[in-house]
Description:
With about 450 residues, the protein is mainly alpha-helical. The chain has helices at about 10-15, 15-35, 40-50, 55-65, 70-80, 95-130, 150-175, 190-200, 215-245, 270-295, 305-330, 340-345, 355-365, 370-385, 390-395, 395-400, 405-410, 420-425, and strands at about 135-140, 145-150, 175-180, 205, 250, 335.
Amino acid sequence: MIPRYSRREMSAIWSDQNKFKTWLQVELAVCEARYNRGEIPEEDWKTIRKKAGFTVKRIEEIEAEVKHDVIAFLTAVAEKVGPASRHIHVGMTSSDVLDTSLAINLVESAKQIRQGLEKLLGTLRHQALIHKYTPCMGRSHGIHAEPTTFGLKLAGWYSEVKRDLERLDSATDHIAVGQISGAVGTCAHLDPAIEEAALNLLGLQTDPVSTQVISRDRHAWFLSALAVIAATMERIGTEIRNLQRTEILEVEEYFDVNQKGSSAMPHKRNPITAEQICGLARVVRSNLVAGLENVALWHERDITHSSVERVILPDSCILVDYMLARMASLVERLIIYPGNMQANIDKTLGLIYSQRLLLALTESGMTREKAYKIVQTSAMKAWQEKVDFRDLIRKDPEVRKSLGKAVIEGCFSQGFYFKSVDHLFRRAGLEGCESAPGPK
């Protein structure tokens, strides 16, 4: 991934230096397991452990000649170790090194991504508690529906990110698997006990039945977890972008004093972080499709997956890590306008309370069909003539006959819609002191 969308810690996991370092870890783990079973003399094992090393430059020089990266790596290591290198890579195939080291890299990446999710959870929790009772307009189909609170919107995002965390943990368990099973997975040249011992040293589980490779359904599942995380980020980003529209302006991305929004229009303050996150989500999501196409390999293995994975796995991990960091910062510094939220609630002249009137009329004994027609008639008149819906309802003889004045006025109580906020917050695992009062 290009540096623009990369963070140092995650990029280091996918660097060439770390890749070859992990390959060496795998080879040394197998040698240690074989030494512990008496298959490698002690002096040779000491030599291997002491001298095994490489330089990326030397590996690249050899690969330019032999056209095989694992052979180039093994040759470079052998040059450092000397004659004892004959014990390295015994009974193994390239994929034993590649797939097992890939699992290590993916597990390390998952740890970084998990930290990003936890950071975002903390930020969402903080903002949700602050705005637990901040009224805002709930919209369906982009149209005003009924009042909600901005805290509930944040609580919904918080719950979704918690599920992302659970999905990531599950996918990580399925990818934390290695193999040291030989050319077609039969363990013909290495005892399965050596495979299990080596993988235990590496902190990995053993693939019960591998071929020459670990089955790619595991990698597809991991990519799926990343794609859903990216989709969550896109969902939050899309909402922020919509709420920052000039005619809505309920929230706004932080805009630095020296920041510029447009090369042509000095007044512009654009939601560029949210837009960037939404764009990168498309890349991560598309990588999942390629990952699914990698599942169906020929027989015990072909390498159609290899070139794809060298792109999609590092890029997806690096992008999701970057997106999470950007989103946490965005939410933490988000400018929120409660006054504009209330003003937007008031824009529809009371129409948003139509369901309460409908239910009050049906509870009074009126048929639902008749009640719906009465309320809708006044609602459409209020909308078309831009008059207050409550005034029309107060004057409607059918409504006045069925409902008392206090009941009618009660139907226009905004606080009614927030009576379950406490319960919903507890259900989401969000408990704490809010800085805004409860419903009125």
